[in-house]
Design brief:
alpha+beta; 502 residues; 7-stranded antiparallel sheet; globular
Length: 502
């Protein structure tokens, strides 16, 4: 069932806000945040017939002196109090502000596996976009710069929390479908466009501008992509990701994908949401020698699963995903009054660890978007479409990917003063439901006397939600939260995923 929600609007905060100042935040550092607004003002008053009566010049001098004295006193008072307003009305803020430790931001933040895409998401936030704009734009960016883990050939799962309504909506691509044997149907474009159509704010072409430029003009190969190339080779990936002699690109090498840039450009100009996807399928069918395909099941938006808790309401994704399993594990763990001592089962030897990409965006009001995408294995089917530059996945009907896709959002109760909204998303491990459950139960059962504001923030920035250096040695956990009118981001391992905010 497709959601019928209308576009979501968020209130855009000012760059400097007195209400965000706190005298007891000992770790905050004062620094200039806005340019000096104190500029001379032209008087609109017209002095007529100055010399028309005796003493006019003297009166003029006295008036100017009083005016200058008044401005001086007002400026001194504003500077001493750090105030941005006067009783007579609003004025521009003074040239001072404050900053926070890494991972804490006033307005909004994004965390993703690629610094380039985190920065692109930040630019969309600053441009007036909401968390859906930033998340979808970053996902399209990752489709360009991280083809080993995601792309237009990937499947997507998502969870969007609307702080205005207090509800969450799940995005699902549906069961995996084959385009041809061993190669999955690409559903990224319709999934992301559906999400943006219902909840985005910026124009759709604005989200595609950055990824299109990266594909056309080139992007630098980062460490995760280079490691995947070194581990799995370049078979089926040349000339996109290899040198002329067939050796894989290294960190810092530049790669381009002009065919993919053309697909993204057409998607930006498409008159209808279905047009770009239909055009992509036509090109892929030509490459694969297929006849025209009939209408396929489309990605859907539907209400998220909900579980009321003493601490608030938990949201996750319905089937096909691990969301139902997550809720069952969570209820069992809470009944036992604590997380299991070992959230990780023995490493699976026979099954290849699934490869996926995750990202998360959050704003200080509590709206957030969690996205998971995957080609199933590294570089998917390793079939690079010559007409589109798209790597198709090897997700087929029997793929077990849905057993570990389960983003989670906890909306705190009105009595919860520590976490207003908390989001967790895990990738890269078949034990994802157990890992997520362990992280959340650890959070819910944390003794209150250990929840000290500054220490907790510092611990989260360094260790992430579970306090472990890795997730069963196989993946990552991203955590985002809206707390005390600020946006917070962190990850496990702590250095895996760059974050940006403002």
């Amino acid at each position: 069932m497709e959601a019928t929600a209308r576009p979501v609007l968020y209130q855009q905060l000012l760059l400097w806000d007195q209400s965000l100042e706190s005298e007891d935040e000992e770790e905050e550092i004062s620094e200039p945040l806005v340019p000096d607004p104190w500029k001379p003002q032209d008087s609109s008053r017209s002095w007529k017939e100055v010399g028309a009566r005796p003493g006019a010049c003297a009166q003029l001098v006295v008036a100017l002196l009083l005016l200058a004295l008044g401005f001086s006193l007002a400026a001194w008072q504003l500077h001493a109090r750090g105030s941005a307003t006067e009783t007579s009305g609003s004025v521009a803020p003074p040239p001072s502000g404050h900053s926070h430790r890494p991972g804490v931001y006033h307005h909004g933040a994004i965390i993703s596996p690629a610094a380039t895409c985190s920065h692109l998401g930040q630019e969309l936030l600053v441009a007036g976009g909401n968390v859906v704009d930033a998340g979808v734009g970053a996902a399209l960016c990752l489709a360009v710069v991280h083809p080993h883990a995601t792309g237009l050939g990937a499947m997507f799962w998502g969870l969007f929390h609307n702080s205005s309504s207090g509800n969450s909506t799940a995005l699902t691509s549906g069961p995996a479908q084959s385009l041809v044997p061993g190669q999955g149907l690409p559903l990224a474009l319709p999934a992301l466009r559906l999400l943006h159509t219902h909840f985005g704010r910026l124009p759709w072409p604005r989200l595609l501008a950055g990824p299109t430029t990266l594909a056309q003009e080139g992007f630098l190969v980062d460490t995760p992509l280079a490691q995947a190339l070194a581990a799995h080779g370049t078979k089926g990936l040349c000339p996109l990701l290899c040198h002329s002699d067939g050796t894989p690109l290294s960190p810092g090498d530049r790669a381009t994908n002009p065919k993919l840039a053309a697909v993204l450009h057409k998607a930006a100009l498409a008159s209808t949401p279905d047009f770009a996807w239909t055009a992509l399928l036509s090109l892929l069918a030509k490459d694969l020698g297929l006849q025209g395909r009939s209408a396929e099941p489309r990605p859907t938006l539907e209400p998220a699963l909900k579980l009321p808790l003493a601490q608030g309401i938990l949201f996750t994704t319905p089937s096909p995903s691990a969301g139902p399993e997550l809720l069952a594990l969570l209820q069992a763990a809470l009944q036992s009054r604590g997380p299991s001592s070992d959230p990780c089962p023995p490493r699976l030897q026979a099954t290849e660890t699934p490869v996926s990409s995750v990202l998360a965006t959050v704003d200080s009001s509590g709206s957030m978007l969690l996205l998971i995408s995957s080609l199933n294995s590294s570089f998917g089917s390793r079939h690079l479409s010559p007409s589109t530059g798209v790597l198709l996945s090897n997700l087929v009907a029997k793929s077990a990917i849905s057993t570990w896709a389960c983003p989670l959002i906890l909306r705190g109760s009105p009595d919860d003063t520590e976490d207003d909204v908390l989001g967790l998303v895990v990738s890269g491990t078949p034990a994802v439901a157990r890992v997520t459950t362990h992280a959340l139960v650890s959070h819910l059962t944390r003794p209150q006397n250990q929840v000290q504001h500054h220490h907790h923030h510092q611990h989260q920035a360094q260790q992430g939600p579970t306090g472990n250096p890795s997730v069963c040695g196989q993946g990552i956990v991203l955590q985002v939260a809206a707390r005390a009118e600020h946006a917070h981001v962190s990850s496990v391992p702590s250095g895996c995923c760059p974050y940006q905010g403002f």
